[in-house]
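Re: the request from the purification team.
They wanted to know what the chain is likely to look like in 3D before they choose a buffer screen. I agreed to run a prediction and write the result into the notebook, where they can find it.
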Amino acid sequence: MTTDVYAKLVSILTTHLPDADTTILADRSQALAELNLDSLSILEVIYELEEYFGFELTEPQLQELTTIDDLIRAFDSGVKPAA
């Protein structure tokens, strides 16, 4: 499911970062703070992922999200996407 999570994440990030270089988004170790997103935008991205995958992350999980790969791992739990 990692590919599905990554594809959805890139889709969401490109709506928030229309001028984003796809090579930056391909680097899964890229820090979220370096994507030129403010904290509200990062929360919006996470909210959209939660809506799509049908579950919410806990506060401790949210605090651990620092890279693109962290987001992928957080949502790569095998939960089916929300309808």
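For the purification team: The longest helix spans residues 2-16.
Please add any questions underneath this entry.
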